[in-house]
Request: fold
Amino acid sequence: MSAKPGELENILGYRFKDVTILERALTHRSWAYERMSPNDGNPEQNETLEFLGDSVLGLAIAEQVFIKNPSSSEGEMTLMKHRLVSSDSLAAVASEIGLGRFVRLGKGEERSGGRERKTILTNTLEAVIGAVFSDGGFIAARSVIVRLFADKLRRVTPESALDFKTILQETLHASKSDPPVYTVVRTEGPSHNRRFFVEAVWDKGKAEGNGRSIKSAEMEAAAAALELLRSKKGIET
Reply:
């Protein structure tokens, strides 16, 4: 790590009773596997905390969306939650707090720019949230999440959390293009903590997204496709 865990505790606004849990949350598997001996079995790294943090984050964000938007429909709340817990949102929060400085990476990941890699940032942020929950319970984890996502929670609205798949389909239809086809191109991680990578392909282009479920990965791919259309063809969406 290029920065000390105590600095991250200040950013999170939470002091760990057991700082080794935070250190584990900041340990990427590349670092753990480089240091394991032949008899170590499964080295301690952050993937199980990441799995836990994903669920805790989803619950805390759903609660905040419900509290702040009591008159919204279930569908609108679902879209707002999806936007807030999307990989783009998590990567942005992780970058804002400089989380990459704290991650323990193997030499190969370090050399290849792992500290700025979106998947490493999002996974580590979830692991840190899981660590807070494990160390201090849901109230502590919720407090950290509300602190980190305060600006995004303040700005999210039903209008800002649009259904990107529907918008993409309508945009392509208006330009007389074929509707997009979504395909899972690969998966990463163990079965209990899998990330899906989906490609959206249409007659004039393609874009990729990823997420914890196929549905969320499709939404990410659709959002990426819309950005591609805006930048390359100037289509208003």
Remarks:
- The domain at 164-233 is CATH 3.30.160.20 (Double Stranded RNA Binding Domain).
